[in-house]
Design a protein that fits this description.
With 447 residues, the chain is mostly helical. It contains 16 helices and no strands. Helix 1 packs parallel to helix 14 and helix 3 crosses helix 12.
């Protein structure tokens, strides 16, 4: 007997929630804007080349850093939390069915596998799927928590994270400040203390990151345009970004916090488009007002040093402000995005938003396609390091169009994307759900 007739049932096309698909589609597009600089440029900054100036690259970076930095990942992470509650809705109530919990656990392990495929086969070390798979398992512990408690818990996590980042970054700033005196002492042939030697080492590493030598840039380009060095680079970069130092558990904590907020917004009907018009207006007003204000202040403050490493102008106050405001402004702007998109969609300003909803329904497939397309473009064709920041943003928009057209074409013929098919097969343990729709069918109506 097919387990789907007696066990947990996956979400059908007619069960889907339009607003969730729309938000997910916007998020998967916005994530590419943040990822593509690290895909198409060399170095660790994901910023235009210094010095900063009023040109297309730096203007595009300024817009990206204010509107999209962290907010698209934040939105996508919220939706992951909401998706868990949607899958586990049968596990609640007076007669709960616990079988969906098993499905969710298998789904998380499948996401971990898909994440490994991302950085091993698709060569994108910045993937987020392993993080989501691990975090999703932790999330089961709070699946029945009420919205207010979820918000309070998420706020506590983000506050602790901000304090940790402040401590970490202030120490680095102070060390770089001390490197000026250490460099002078070295030039005077004085014996350096252990602290001074550490400060000089940090100074040299920072200079290498902000102002890479042409030989280092050429080496990185060669590494990422040949095999097997490109695989070695991807594995090493993934390890540095996900397992290096304290970053791994901070990324887990950050994801848990945003997923908990997504769960709360789902339970209150906000993410499903069922909030009041006034609620969404307040979300825009408070979210954008507070978020943009904080980010614009940080942007202006950073511009006073040209966003560069001017060791004589490094400011502990700026470091504290920037790191204290990062998570709050990121969350605020993400909330503003939800309010704006829900308002526009409910008013009909976006029409049926079929391309965005199709992207949202195939978000996992589209995420993989983004990795594949950029790997072919930058690594196989050898164009890594060939484009400026603004050009990369334009390439990202082109990929939106390509993947959006593909998603609509695919959903005219099948009930879900290929990556979603694989994920469901792994989660439900049944290949019966892999049957395609009749070729003549169109995208099923969404209620």
């Amino acid at each position: 007997m097919d387990m789907l007739t007696t066990g947990p049932r996956p979400v059908q096309a007619t069960d889907r929630i339009e607003t969730l698909d729309l938000l997910r589609g916007v998020a998967i597009c916005g994530i590419l804007l943040m990822n593509i600089p690290y895909m198409g440029m060399v170095g660790d900054l994901g910023m235009p080349a210094f010095p900063a100036m009023w040109n297309a690259d730096w203007i595009a970076w300024g817009i990206q850093s204010v509107l999209f930095e962290g907010t698209m990942r934040g939105l996508f992470t919220m939706l992951f939390g909401a998706g868990m509650l949607l899958m586990l809705r049968r596990a609640e109530g007076e007669a709960p069915d616990v079988s969906p919990v098993d499905v969710w656990a298998r789904r998380c392990w499948a996401l971990i596998l898909l994440g490994i495929i991302q950085f091993v086969l698709f060569l994108w070390p910045g993937e987020i799927l392993v993080n989501y798979g691990v975090t999703g398992l932790f999330l089961l512990a709070v699946r029945t928590v009420k919205p207010r408690a979820l918000i309070a818990g998420a706020a506590a996590i983000l506050i602790v994270m901000s304090c940790f980042y402040i401590h970490q970054r202030v120490e680095r700033t102070q060390m770089l400040q001390a490197s000026t005196a250490a460099a002078a002492a070295k030039a005077a042939n004085k014996k350096l203390t252990e602290e001074q030697e550490g400060a000089l080492e940090a100074r040299e590493k920072a200079i290498e990151i902000y102002h890479p030598k042409p030989a280092d840039t050429a080496r990185q380009i060669k590494e990422r345009t040949h095999f097997p060095s490109i695989l070695t680079w991807s594995l090493g970069q993934w390890n540095d970004w996900n397992m290096g130092g304290s970053e791994w558990y901070l990324l887990i904590c950050e994801s848990i916090a945003f997923m908990m907020i997504g769960m709360a917004l789902f339970r209150t009907g906000i993410l499903t488009g069922n909030g009041s018009a006034a609620t969404y207006r307040w979300m825009m007003l408070i979210g954008y007002g507070g978020g943009f204000a904080g980010r614009l202040v940080a942007l202006y403050w950073g511009s006073r040093t040209g966003f560069d490493l001017d060791f004589d102008k490094l400011s502990v106050s700026y470091t504290v402000f920037r790191n204290a405001m990062y998570e709050p402004t990121r969350l605020a702007i993400t909330i503003g995005h939800v309010g704006l998109l829900a308002t526009l969609f409910r008013s009909g300003a976006l029409g049926r938003a079929k391309p965005l909803r199709a992207l949202g329904r195939m978000a996992l497939t589209v995420y993989s396609l983004q990795s594949i397309i950029t790997s072919v473009l930058f690594y196989a064709l050898g164009w890594v390091g060939s484009f400026g920041f603004a050009t990369l943003m334009a390439i990202a928009v082109s990929i939106w169009v390509i993947t959006g057209a593909f998603a609509m074409w695919w959903l005219d013929r099948f009930d879900m994307g290929p990556a979603e098919r694989f994920l469901r097969a792994m989660s439900y343990g049944s290949l019966s759900i892999l049957r395609p729709k009749p070729v003549t069918a169109s995208i099923a109506p969404i209620s």
